[in-house]
What we know:
Helix 1 (about 1-30) packs across helix 2 and helix 1 packs antiparallel against helix 3 (about 55-65).
Amino acid sequence: xxxxxxxxxxxxxxxxxxxxxxxxxxxxxxxxxxxxxxxxxxxxxxxxxxxxxxxxxxxxxxxxxxxxxxxxxxxxxxxxxxxxxxxxxxxxxxxxxxxxxxxxxxxxxxxxxxxxxxxxxxxxxxxxxxxxxx
Length: 134
């Protein structure tokens, strides 16, 4: 039971981290403080994919599999849990392009919303100063 729970937790944490790394910029539109965490998550995803690094969550999943007497899976999380489910095998480049576009859209939207909010604050200060002079 314990090793099965470890595997489920590692896979669940992987999906949550992947979702936040991709879509967290959109959450930052509502909660701006999240943008720093999302940038770190997106950069980590980029490093893992580009450098082909072994993710610590994959290591945990493999330890759980070994604890159950199973062999670790070949490849990483994306190979075993995402490819073939969210995009066809062999189309990683297309999935990566879509992910990059989604992240850039979320960051662009975030920057535009932050600019709009700064301009509103400046305008509100200007209106208050104008009313004070009257």
